[in-house]
Design brief:
Blueprint lengths: L2 H40 L2 H35 L1 H34 L6 H30 L5 E3 L2 E3 L3 H5 L4 H29 L4 H36 L1 H7 L6 E2 L3 E8 L4 E8 L2 H7 L5 E2 L13 H30 L8 H9 L3 H15 L4 E3 L3 E2 H4 L6 H33 L10
Antiparallel strand pairs: 1-2, 3-6, 4-5, 7-8
InterPro entries: Cyt-d_ubiquinol_oxidase_su_1
Organism: Pedobacter metabolipauper
Protein name: Cytochrome bd-I ubiquinol oxidase subunit 1 apoprotein
Length: 442
């Protein structure tokens, strides 16, 4: 493995792990705060139990997210010094503000974890809300930095120099809103379905049914509502990408030829040699409508993009199809759940509905990783779109391949440890609480 490839793989692997930890850390505090609110309003012990159980999960993911995020900050400096030399002064503001949000989150989490019976009950609940809001803001600020890479602004690029830097304009670039919205909703979808799936499994096994039923309902409502909102945020993102990054849209859809009434391609195998897609379902005019708002609108194809500036079509297309396919599967489950809530109450305790949520447990995170792949691979060969190429930005250290293997081992170990801690937490709940009671055994 050459050093250039190893450097890129190490960054990709680190981001792939961190995004999972970060999204759960962003969303779980909101689940925790809702359960806590129900406890304060109803005084039913089961909601307090759910709150305390979830608060321990929040603490675990806060710690792992902090560790994996710190590693990423070092990697930016070590592996991409050329990129940071030029980009750091421009898009450094969201990173510095993210650090502030992180410190607020840490302080609020400390109040929350150790504030039981020590501070005012509603103030205690409020600190949990602050944990969620500050965590969500941290994610949005990091995405703002990434969106700048897709839509660079806030500077003048003259004779290879970055002049007249405006960090505010750089942070609130043309892509930040659509990316932040899409990423935030995706975090709620993936975490909601994952948490609901775990509790659905416990219900199906007959372990502490009351406890897990309350937890399942909170997580499922968050996940299903977000799943139904995600196609709307996806449409906003698609229209934005069509305007700013036509090469990315063309790669996402394997759209080789510029045309009007362009079809939306579902599935298929891109044939880059012959510029076609085999075995695909094509919906005439739909891509034109999604990109331009007009079924007869013209959509730029890869034939208008210089070969050296074209993203990897196959990877981008397959990742996009996985993201959309899994997203629509979760929308279908969400609609079935809403029908159960409003019309078919008998479905709520049915095994088939619980099994659907169990099967959907990993789908949100697979879709999340696929979407992140579309965002990053679809921008290639640029690290700063239209300004700096990835090949010119990386400065790999000698022997980086060994570092890649080491970091891969660290992240896999971290994932195993987190999984074991969460499993221990879930099984401890089953031992502490009786499945037929609202109260602990002892």
């Amino acid at each position: 493995m050459d050093d250039f490839l190893a450097a890129r793989l190490q960054m990709a692997f680190s981001l792939g792990f961190h995004i999972v930890f970060a999204c759960i850390g962003m969303v779980m505090p909101f689940f925790m705060s809702v359960a806590h609110f129900y406890w304060l309003k109803t005084r039913k012990a089961v909601y307090k139990d759910v709150t305390k159980a979830w608060s321990k999960g929040v603490a675990i993911f806060f710690a792992t997210g902090a560790v994996s995020g710190t590693v990423l900050s070092f990697e930016l400096g070590l592996l991409w010094p050329k990129f940071m030399e030029h980009a750091g002064p421009i898009f450094g503001m969201p990173f510095s503000l993210e650090g502030t949000a992180f410190f607020i989150e840490a302080i609020a989490l400390g109040f929350y974890l150790y504030g039981w019976n020590k501070v005012n009950a509603w103030f205690h609940w409020f600190t949990g809300v602050v944990v969620g809001i500050s965590g969500l803001l941290s994610g949005i600020l990091v995405v703002a930095a990434n969106s700048w890479m897709n839509s660079p602004s806030g500077f003048d690029y003259i004779d290879g120099k970055y002049l007249n830097v405006d960090p505010i304009k750089a942070m609130f670039n043309d892509a930040w809103f659509s990316q932040a919205l899409h990423m935030s909703v995706a975090a709620f979808v993936s975490t909601g379905f994952a948490v609901a799936g775990v509790h659905a499994l416990m219900i199906l096994r007959g372990r502490n049914v009351i406890f897990h039923s309350k937890a399942f309902k909170i997580a499922a409502i968050f996940g299903t509502v977000a799943a139904c909102l995600q196609p709307l945020s996806g449409d906003i993102s698609a229209k934005d990408v069509a305007q700013r990054q036509p090469a990315k849209l063309a790669a996402m859809e394997a759209h080789f030829h510029t045309e009007k009434n362009a079809p939306l391609i579902i599935g298929g195998i891109p044939d880059t040699l012959n510029k076609k897609v085999d075995y695909a379902i094509k919906l005439p005019g739909v891509l034109s409508f999604m990109a331009t708002g007009d079924f007869n609108g013209e959509v730029k194809g890869l034939d208008q993009i210089p070969k050296k500036d074209q993203p990897p079509v196959a990877v981008t297309h397959y990742a996009f199809q996985i993201m959309v396919g899994l997203g629509m599967a979760m929308v279908l489950i969400a609609l079935l759940y809403f029908i159960a809530l409003w019309k078919k109450r008998s479905w709520l305790g049915s095994k088939w509905l619980l099994k659907l949520f169990i099967l959907a447990t990993p789908l949100g995170f697979i879709a999340l990783e696929a979407g992140w792949t579309v965002t990053e691979v679809g921008r290639q060969p640029w690290i700063i779109h239209g300004v700096m190429r990835t090949a010119d930005a990386v400065t790999p250290m000698p022997g980086i391949a060994y570092s890649f293997y080491l970091f891969t081992g660290v992240y896999i170990s971290l994932a195993i440890i987190v999984s074991l801690l969460l499993y221990r937490q879930i099984t401890m709940v089953g031992k502490l609480y009786d499945s037929s009671s609202d109260h602990p055994k002892n």
